[in-house]
């Protein structure tokens, strides 16, 4: 008996890019019609790797601006930053004591980010999925729209919810609460753009944290920059295949067709019906036009909003208060369940 509620977060850890937009932010907007929606700038996640304080403050406003510019309505949705609602840290600690170290050690994102240096990364980086579970479960969110890279973390959130419900089953009942105290949250990973790859190398994820990747399409890029980056995207020499089967083993082609499909609300098959058998010289300019038409107005609006710090800070403050009201209800129960 959980009401349909969506939670999703973005880290203020660098340049927002096309992958964040297609995999997450763009999908936040229609969910406002069907769910109660809570969108968070996860600044506490960002500091799991070093962030200059002033950069963090600027990037936090930038992510909030991106939400609004993309069509998230701060009246219909709760928009806030994580550090303003202290219950995130409080529940994360309880979850640190529920989750097992072995679960954390298996996370592929941790292994990727820690690399060979796993003894000298922050403890927070290892515990990251536990904080993410707290973000989601504080609001008893039933669904989380994310990109494919977050799938494993969502599974861990479900494991933490189930273990908490199970470990504390007797106490939950004793407190007169619903035995399904935390929901088993559904990941919403769907559509043709669940994992946008780098335009330089179709085998690497487009990511905020790779400063050397000049091919990344930033949500702050103007029309000219967007168009140039798409025209320079690495491709194989063959023409576009006639069907989706023909995209197999062609990561760059698959990526560009996926981006076109996501931006135009089509399937890859539909895009190939239109462009199959044609060369990149035909497809790339069409993709560039489409991307410019969608992204350039948004980047203009983002740039305007980033300057208007009073408005952005007001939205985050108001959202923080609304989020805290829900979060405190959950924490109030959790404290009693745990025995605090
Ligand atoms: P990043 O991985 O760029 O640092 P975050 O970890 O803050 O970004 O993720 C924010 C959201 O953007 C998540 O839902 C994540 O799954 C999504 N996302 C990140 N990169 C991509 C990508 N290349 N393609 C699709 N979705 C992505
Ligand atoms: Na990510």
Automatic annotation (TrEMBL):
A motif ('HIGH' region) lies at residues 12-20. One of its GO terms (cellular component) is cytosol. ATP binds at residues 11-13, 19-20, 147-149, 196, 205-209. Keywords: Aminoacyl-tRNA synthetase, ATP-binding, Cytoplasm, Ligase, Nucleotide-binding, Protein biosynthesis. This is Tryptophan--tRNA ligase. It catalyses: tRNA(Trp) + L-tryptophan + ATP = L-tryptophyl-tRNA(Trp) + AMP + diphosphate + H(+). It is found in: Cytoplasm. CDD domains: TrpRS_core. Homodimer. Its EC number is 6.1.1.2. PANTHER family: TRYPTOPHAN--TRNA LIGASE, MITOCHONDRIAL (PTHR43766:SF1). GO terms for biological process: tryptophanyl-tRNA aminoacylation. The gene is trpS. Belongs to the class-I aminoacyl-tRNA synthetase family. Catalyzes the attachment of tryptophan to tRNA(Trp). Pfam families: tRNA-synt_1b. The keyword Cytoplasm applies. L-tryptophan binds at residue 135. InterPro entries: aa-tRNA-synth_I_CS (IPR001412), aa-tRNA-synth_Ic (IPR002305), Rossmann-like_a/b/a_fold (IPR014729), Trp-tRNA-ligase (IPR002306), Trp-tRNA-ligase_bac-type (IPR024109), Trp-tRNA_synthetase (IPR050203).
